[in-house]
User: What shape does this take?
Amino acid sequence: MPEQHIYDVAVIGCGPAGLSAAINVKVRNRDVIVLGAEVCSPPLDKAPRIDNYLGFAGIPGAMLRDKFLEHATSMGIEIRRNKVAAVIPDGDVFFITTREETILAQTVVMATGTPYRPRLKGEEEFLGRGLSYCATCDGPLYRGKDIVIIAHSPEAEIEANYMAEICRQVYFVPLFGEPQNLEEKVQVVPGQPTRVAGDNKVTSLHLEDKILTVDGVFIVGAETPPERLFPGIEMKDNHIKVDRNMQTSIPGLFAAGDCVGPPYQVAKSVGEGQVAGLSAAKFVVARRSQKGQAKI
Ligand SMILES: Cc1cc2nc3c(=O)[nH]c(=O)nc-3n(C[C@H](O)[C@H](O)[C@H](O)COP(=O)(O)OP(=O)(O)OC[C@H]3O[C@@H](n4cnc5c(N)ncnc54)[C@H](O)[C@@H]3O)c2cc1C
Assistant: This one.
């Protein structure tokens, strides 16, 4: 079997921080891949106008995002719309797993945006006791049972269709707009969830105007907290801890943008992305020369 390619740098996240990191790696002539979830930069998508990004006064957020994407793709940077589930270091290589594949890279830049925090009453309390963030992983435990999927993005539709094959009843609460690709068996329940309830285990999900009696609640398509993506990563005040080179507590792992802390702003994300990208490229060169295989 041919050996799998090992990228110099893998960037997780295709918002301003991730794309800025990627173009700076490319400028330094290292090979780079960007792994981004379905929507590149949900916050920029929602920003009606940006008034404080130098040179682009009043630009709609989505337009600025599209300019960033055009810039990256015009440089030949590959952007794969694959959501990363875990990053595991093994010797000199990071294994980056997505639903579709495993990518190998020497260094990683995490640019995953504002870290997800539990938002629902009961969410933390029932985690692992009927509440899960991954239907594909925990689904088999709910065979023949009733579950609800709280869907933060369209990717949750795939998980719902899978659960419909094994569960008795699948409810789907879309928080992103109109679902387009659900199987007939999945029942859409519009509304805003307010709390997860139960005794020892989950027994229901409360919405503003109704209660769904269920055995399981799956929260799907929301951002993954960095410490779940990368177990053991050092955090500070709910953000990834970095130094001035955007180096995290793990050698070869860098981070930039909203995931490292406020102010949550485009200019700061782009600047930090640049530093992280350059640091990652430098790390690769230093390691190569240590091993006597410098490629200038
Ligand atoms: C309504 C609104 C208005 C705003 N107005 C302004 C403004 O006027 N000026 C300003 O400077 N800033 C503004 N911001 C903030 C600005 O949009 C953010 O600071 C900026 O987008 C952060 O960039 P980022 O790259 O760090 O993160 P993001 O833009 O959040 O990008 C992170 C990316 O990582 C992806 N991702 C996350 N987890 C994974 C995973 N596991 N696998 C793969 N990909 C993943 C996400 O899908 C996303 O594409 C506004 C934000 C909002 C919501």
Notes: The chain has two domains: 6-116+224-290, 123-220. Residues 12-18, 35-37, 39-44, 46-47, 50-53, 83-84, 111-113, 223-224, 229, 257-258, 264-267, 269 surround flavin-adenine dinucleotide (CB under 6 Å). The radius of gyration is 20 Å. The chain has a mean pLDDT of 93.
